[in-house]
Amino acid sequence: MSTVLLLLITGIGLGALYFLVASGLSLIYGLMGVLNFAHGSFLTLAGFLGWEVGRRIGDGTWAGLLTGMLVGLVVGAVVAALTELIFIRPLYNRHIEQVLVTVGLGLASVALFEGIWGTDPIQIRLPEWLGGTTDVLGANIPNDRWLLIATAVVVLVLIVLFLQRTSYGLVIRAGVENRTMVTALGIDVRRAFTIVFAIGGAAAGLGGVLASVYYGQVGAHQGTSLLIYAFIVTVIGGLGSLTGAAIASVLVAVIQQFANFYLGGTGDLAIVLALAAVLLVRPTGLMGKVKH
């Protein structure tokens, strides 16, 4: 029983990390139809800069970590907004060019990060509490999972409040449902596009710092590897559905954890099979809708 509980809670913690990356992807595609393959670069850059600033504030302290998280959030938002303004905006409705540009940015950024910080992952120091465990019904849960879960819940609540309670949120939700109709009503959705990119980048940037907490290191390829899982989560949850992304993040991570433990490390195969099953049964994903 304790093993099952350990796998379940650690899976939810990993799912929280997937959600931070996938939420932005889902919103960006839902409103703009843009598959942003440079999304992992926002995560990696934020992770590196968050670590650089955090260790100067206080290496291995809460002050350093929280400062790093704030830096990651800001860096992710700014870089994502600039990417939309400079590279994506001139290419709306040109999907092939969008894919080529974002893939190129992703590849070039990895080479840039390797040139600056090296090819080997950098081990990081964390506050002492995060390196410990908490006993839950006999299961020793790593404390860093609680930080991941709490942060993802806060981000989910803030994004939902933004979408439900603000005028830009209304435009974004309407654009996800029917972008053509919103444009026909004379509403300029371009500023909403930039805001969505910034929100997605901020969540990914925060995820970049927390990924270094989860893995205990930060490296040039961290964002690329997490981006693969984020795309799987986004497709399973339903493109454009924030709720779907949240549910799919937990499902994917929990399946991955159980398969790795009970089925000889086949977690990645299990989630690919889950992706295939969902697409066969429900091509739009768990919470996705057919776009008009």
UniProtKB/TrEMBL annotation:
- Alphabetized InterPro entries for the sequence: ABC_transp_permease, BCAA_transport_permease
Tagged with keyword Metal-binding: no
Per UniProt, subcellular location reads as: Cell membrane
Q: What would be one Gene Ontology cellular-component term for the protein?
A: plasma membrane
Coiled coil start-end: none
One GO term in the molecular function aspect is: transmembrane transporter activity
Task: Report the transmembrane regions from the record.
Answer: 6-27, 34-51, 63-87, 99-117, 146-171, 192-215, 227-254, 261-281
What name does this protein carry?
A: ABC transporter permease
The protein's organism comes out as Agrococcus pavilionensis RW1
The source's superkingdom equals Bacteria
Topology term for the membrane: Multi-pass membrane protein
Read off the Pfam families from this record.
BPD_transp_2
Q: Which UniProt keywords apply?
A: Amino-acid transport, Cell membrane, Membrane, Transmembrane, Transmembrane helix, Transport
- Family designation: Belongs to the binding-protein-dependent transport system permease family. LivHM subfamily.
Q: Which GO terms describe its biological process?
A: amino acid transport
